[in-house]
């Protein structure tokens, strides 16, 4: 009996004398390695052309090399200053030495621009000081010579700007994007009302994107239902109409809407000819025109996900509910609509994410009060060449998109668990 049990518990061996379980584990590891080797080129490609450039751009939102690189001695010396009163004599001497080198190396432009961003008038001060070098400290010290050259060097706020920017990294751009700043005591405080615009811009962007998403859903759901229920021939014709905008440039479509919506355009002329209105409606260069154009452009991105889900729903469910005595609307709402929630969520997320990054449509069809975050990203990128603010705003927009995607994934996962 014991011999029989021992024989049953003995491991099964392969022809090579290796236990079968060990051989299976080896084969599994080999297959996993082959799979990783197959996707490795794609993963490396994505890291090189997508992840690394994205990280490099986002890093610019905290990069602050101008002051640190142009004034290295001053940055090191001013670190011992507590920010109260005026810095010590060695800080003044370090500033003179750094400005002389920066002036000779022609790096004063970036330095003055960065300092002027935080304190207007700083560019003229450093340029004036650099042109006056070398100073002759006929008074008691270099500090006295600088004060004699320009009394602003006796204002602690100018030195506090250098002290805040002595590090190669800064939170200035991110805080400015959230309407906050670091005060003279190093505390994070709200920006002045005349400078606090970006939170309103983010709120406007999210609200306009939400409205566009809801309008797209309202108009797209019936179209998707028709696509899923019409006979094949009619459905294909309607699908061509849905996909036709994909073959037309967004810029061309926006220009077409300007022609249609302007005061002397076709829509106003048609309404006046019918006697519905006496004066042309203001449909362009305001939020109404932005909504109309964005909904028209983004509707296909809402229709297609909903249609793909509806196509897999059997019509017998709805007919069975009606045959059992349910009202057609009640049957649709309680039986059919819940099965399309996944398509509605996917289409809504896609449209909302695309909406928050829109630039061309609000820029051409909207007023200054209708511009979204992307407008300011383009402004800082193309006009003022302020990469810090551009990447800070873009990074916050990117973060909002990631949060939306995480929430969507969580909702989909919770829904699957509930259905399971």
UniProtKB/TrEMBL annotation:
Mind telling me which residue stretches traverse the membrane in this protein? 36-58, 206-228, 235-252, 289-310, 344-365, 385-408
Keyword Transmembrane assigned to the entry: answer is yes
What is the protein name stated in its UniProt record?
ABC transporter permease
PROSITE patterns assigned:
ABC_TM1 (PS50928)
Q: Where in the cell is it found?
A: Cell membrane
What is the scientific name of the source organism? Leeia speluncae
Keywords, ordered alphabetically: Cell membrane, Membrane, Transmembrane, Transmembrane helix, Transport
The ABC transmembrane type-1 domain is annotated at 202-408
């Amino acid at each position: 009996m014991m011999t029989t049990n021992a024989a049953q518990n003995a491991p099964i061996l392969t022809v090579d004398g290796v236990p079968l379980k060990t051989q299976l584990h080896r084969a599994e590891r080999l297959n996993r390695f082959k799979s990783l080797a197959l996707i490795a080129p794609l993963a490396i490609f994505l890291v090189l052309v997508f992840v690394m450039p994205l990280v490099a751009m986002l890093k610019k939102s905290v990069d602050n090399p101008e002051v640190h690189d142009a004034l290295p001695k001053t940055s090191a010396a001013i670190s011992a200053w507590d920010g109260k009163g005026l810095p010590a004599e060695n800080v003044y001497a370090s500033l003179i030495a750094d400005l002389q080198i920066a002036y000779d190396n022609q790096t004063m432009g970036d330095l003055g621009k960065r300092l002027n961003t935080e304190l207007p008038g700083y560019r003229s001060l450093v340029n004036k000081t650099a042109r006056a070098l070398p100073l002759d400290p006929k008074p008691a010290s270099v500090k006295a010579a600088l004060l004699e050259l320009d009394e602003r060097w006796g204002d602690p706020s100018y030195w506090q700007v250098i002290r805040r920017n002595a590090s190669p990294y800064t939170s200035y751009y991110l805080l400015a994007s959230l309407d906050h700043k670091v005060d003279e005591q190093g505390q994070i405080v709200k920006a002045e009302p005349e400078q606090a615009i970006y939170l309103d811009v983010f709120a406007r962007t999210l609200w306009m994107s939400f409205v566009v998403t809801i309008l797209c859903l309202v108009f797209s759901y019936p179209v998707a239902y028709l696509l899923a229920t019409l006979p094949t021939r009619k459905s294909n014709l309607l699908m061509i109409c849905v996909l036709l905008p994909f073959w037309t440039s967004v810029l061309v479509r926006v220009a077409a809407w300007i022609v249609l919506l302007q005061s002397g355009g076709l829509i106003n002329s048609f309404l006046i000819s019918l006697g519905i209105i006496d004066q042309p409606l203001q449909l362009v260069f305001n939020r109404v025109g932005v909504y109309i154009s964005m909904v028209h452009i983004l509707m296909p991105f809402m229709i297609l996900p909903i249609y793909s889900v509806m196509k897999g729903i059997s019509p017998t469910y709805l007919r069975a509910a009606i045959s059992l005595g349910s009202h057609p609307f009640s049957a649709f709402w309680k039986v059919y609509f819940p099965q399309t929630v996944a398509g509605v969520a996917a289409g809504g997320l896609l449209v909302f994410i695309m909406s928050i990054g829109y630039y061309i449509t609000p820029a051409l069809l909207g007023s200054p009060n209708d511009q979204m975050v992307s407008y300011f990203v383009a402004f800082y990128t193309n006009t003022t060449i302020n990469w810090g603010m551009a990447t800070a705003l873009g990074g916050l927009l990117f973060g909002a998109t990631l949060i939306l995607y995480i929430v969507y994934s969580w909702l989909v996962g919770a829904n699957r668990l509930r259905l399971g």
